[in-house]
From TrEMBL:
C-type cytochrome. Part of the cbb3-type cytochrome c oxidase complex. It comes from the Bacteria. It is found in: Cell inner membrane. Keywords: Cell inner membrane, Cell membrane, Electron transport, Heme, Hydrogen ion transport, Ion transport, Iron, Membrane, Metal-binding, Oxidoreductase, Repeat, Respiratory chain, Transmembrane, Transmembrane helix, Transport. The gene is ccoP. Its main location: membrane. Its cofactor is heme c. Binds 2 heme C groups per subunit. This is Cbb3-type cytochrome c oxidase subunit. The keyword Membrane applies.
Length: 294
């Protein structure tokens, strides 16, 4: 947390404590009656009148105790970047709990550490562990079943942007991926975008305009083959998708493909090597591999 937000949190917290204290004391001081009275506030609700009695002493004392507790809590546990008397912090507690969990579950992971991803396919308990870690770390993008979503690859089929070999899957999880599709709209113009779109559709046998595809083929060969190959089957080393099948990361309609060509795409798969141990990444990779190799 920056120094500004640290000061901001402290200012807001202290302002609330001081404001509540002032309101409590000012209200107490301004009470016209210090003891119970038969006088009312002069208005009624459905025949019910409200006495002008002071706040009960025990209630006032509870409010005061609450303010004192808040100040004591800040002193003991701190706030924002400032640690209290105990030296406690949420980050410290998290790290302590994680270290304890690592120690407890270390024997469990050690059991599978020496196995290859291929050997782990015959270890249902190991795959279940990988499945649970996948749910915690990967399902937000790839879905609970790994079926993916718009812009996030389906992990249950045999179509892989960077390759589906066990070692490649583990490398992808550990180091992440950066997929970039340049925007060709300024180069091709709108007519050129539509022509290349028609040619891309023709590669997978989809419905297309033959004349537009013929024009788009020349532009595709000049601009796109460096990544997608002359035959459009893609290059896994570059993460360039195969355009000859019916698997589309961002959609395979004319409008969706046109948008991709016109504006480009920029997909990021975050690296997990700093978040997960090698043993855990191996188990997740084994589970991912099992999704398309049943």
């Amino acid at each position: 947390m920056s120094a500004f937000w640290n000061a901001w949190v402290w200012a807001i917290t202290l302002a609330v404590i001081l404001g509540c204290s002032w309101l409590l004391l000012a209200t107490r001081k301004s009470e016209p009656h210090k003891e119970a009275t038969e006088e009312t506030l002069g208005h009624s609700f459905d025949g019910i009148e409200e006495y002008d009695n002071p706040l009960p002493g025990w209630w006032f004392q509870m409010f005061v105790a609450t303010v004192i507790f808040g100040i004591a809590y800040l002193g003991l546990y701190g706030l924002a970047n400032v640690k209290g008397f105990y030296g406690w912090s949420s980050v410290g507690q998290y790290e302590e709990e994680m270290a304890h969990a690592e120690e407890v579950y270390k024997p469990v992971f050690a059991k599978y550490a020496a196995m290859s991803i291929e050997d782990l396919q015959s270890q249902p308990d190991g795959l279940k562990i990988g499945q649970r870690m996948f749910a915690n770390n990967c399902s937000l993008c790839h879905g609970a079943t790994g079926a993916g979503a718009h812009g996030f690859p389906n992990l249950t089929d045999g179509d892989w942007l960077y390759g589906g070999a066990p070692a490649t899957i583990k490398q992808t999880i550990a180091n992440g991926r950066q997929g970039a599709m340049p925007a060709w709209g300024p180069v091709l113009g709108e007519e050129g975008v539509r022509d290349v779109t028609s040619y891309v559709l023709s590669l997978s046998g989809a419905e297309h305009d033959a004349d537009m595809a013929a024009r788009g083929k020349q532009q595709f060969q000049a601009l796109c083959t460096a990544c997608h190959g002359a035959d459009g089957k893609g290059t896994q080393a570059l993460g360039a998708p195969n355009l000859t099948d019916n698997t589309w990361l961002y959609g395979g309609s004319f409008e969706q493909i046109s948008h991709t060509i016109r504006t480009g795409r920029n997909g990021v798969m975050p690296a997990h090597k700093d978040l997960l141990s090698d043993d855990k990444i191996t188990l997740i990779a084994a589970y991912v591999y099992s999704l398309s190799n049943k």
